[in-house]
């Protein structure tokens, strides 16, 4: 089955950390750029971070210095290390194989103040 499956979301206090994972199955992974996106209630989905197939990274200004994206092509897994979490980081986080229609189902991240 072709899919991306996220895990690692949850409830954390402000200032805490979470690590999200996204594992692909039945897909080609290593040659694609990958991204983490998030969508908060009442807001549009936005790019959080992206990583090229060669490891080049890009971050939204709101998460620079706090989040880190990485990938393990052999394991077909994408990661997002989130430190210094803020209540405004609360959202459903999705992984996406960029330039394709493939999205994960999302994982909820809730940051309490």
Helix- and strand-based class? mainly beta
Radius of gyration: 13 Å
The fraction of residues in strands falls at over 45%
Annotation, overall tally of beta strands: 10
Proportion of helical residues: under 10%
Q: How are helices and strands ordered from N to C?
A: EEEEEEEEEE
What does this structure look like?
- The chain is mostly beta strands.
- It has a six-stranded mixed β-sheet with strand order 2-10-9-4-5-6, with no helix packed on it. The protein has a four-stranded antiparallel β-sheet with strand order 1-3-8-7, with no helix packed on it.
- The protein is globular.
- The termini are far apart.
- A hairpin with a 5-residue loop joins strand 5 and strand 6.
- It has no helices and ten strands.
Secondary structure elements and their pairing?
Elements: E1 3-7, E2 10-13, E3 18-25, E4 34-39, E5 46-51, E6 57-59, E7 67-72, E8 77-82, E9 91-97, E10 107-112
Parallel strand pairs: 2-10
Antiparallel strand pairs: 1-3, 3-8, 4-5, 4-9, 5-6, 7-8, 9-10
């Amino acid at each position: 089955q072709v899919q991306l499956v996220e895990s690692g979301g949850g409830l954390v206090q402000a200032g805490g950390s979470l690590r999200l994972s996204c594992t692909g199955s039945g897909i080609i992974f290593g040659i694609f750029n990958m991204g983490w996106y998030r969508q908060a209630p009442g807001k549009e989905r936005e790019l959080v971070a992206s990583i090229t197939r060669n490891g080049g990274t890009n971050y939204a200004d709101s998460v620079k210095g706090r989040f880190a994206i990485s990938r393990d092509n052999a394991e077909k897994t994408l990661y997002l290390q989130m430190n210094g979490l803020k209540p405004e980081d609360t959202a459903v986080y999705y992984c996406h194989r960029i330039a394709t229609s493939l999205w994960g189902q999302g994982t909820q991240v809730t940051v309490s103040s």
